[in-house]
Design goal:
With about 300 residues, the chain is of the alpha/beta class. Helix content is about 40%, strand content about 20%. It is built from 11 helices and 10 strands. A 5-stranded parallel sheet has the order 2-1-3-4-5. The chain has a 5-stranded mixed sheet with strand order 6-7-8-9-10. This is inorganic diphosphatase. Keywords: Hydrolase, Manganese, Metal-binding.
Length: about 300
Amino acid sequence: MTKYLVFGHKNPDTDAISSALTFAYFLNQQGHEAEAVALGEVADEPAFALEKFGFDKPRVVKTVANETTHVALVDHNEPQQSVEDLDQVQVDYVIDHHRINGFNTAQPLYYRCEPIGCTATVLFKMFHEYNIEIPANYAGIMLSSIISDTLLLKSPTTTQIDIDAAHKLAEIAGVDLEEYGLEFLRAGADLSKQSDLSIVDGDAKNFIMNGQTIRVGQSNVIGFDEVMKRKEGLLKVMEDKRQELGLTLYLLVITDVLESTSIGLAVGDDIRILEKAFNTTIEDQEFELKGIVSRKKQVVPPLTAAFGE
């Protein structure tokens, strides 16, 4: 029997981790052999959800072709965000909610991508479509994904489908949606034990825009005062990573999860392109991103358009 390795993107966030675990469970229920793995260490926010609902952290892998010939991707499809040897294995499944870019396969596959707030919401629908019961612990990590990706249902990416799924999953998990949601977001926004590197690169993704590689990181906070005291160190880490990875631009979006707004920090060859993309003014490599909270819907599209002009 083929063993599937199931994984989300590099620098995995809550949705990448929990959706890998959840889809591996889904495949196992269908009679396949599947294991969830991670393409990076589990950060504090997903770790909180895993501990809350009784899961061990998935093991971290750097390559997969040495273990299997078949894989399933969750919460991503762009090759530069995936495992290094993706071209050496067969992708049989993709479950996602992002743009499709640079992805192709030699064989047909099951590809499910929906314009909704969270991959876990797509999986919620699949469980119902295939009449598979969602255990309480899996409902808990799926709910955590929705809370994380939609900022407790306040992000512009949120759909009614996400809202309905969150309420049902909270009921199955036996938690109060609002109470747990705030507890979970506060845990993820505690930067006191995080290094500058973790804040900058803990949730960062590469995007190819008009042939140039742009890295966009996002860090959730409650209030900007404490994190901005570390601005100099954050910018140094960003420039070091830019040089290391050969990036055109590195953008860090710092999001206040309670106020639903953000501040941007940037390093690069020409960061003024960000002023056009976001109709903002850059001062000392810092700029306001008023009302912007979604990398997928509010950051990547205007940035892609700006680089395309």
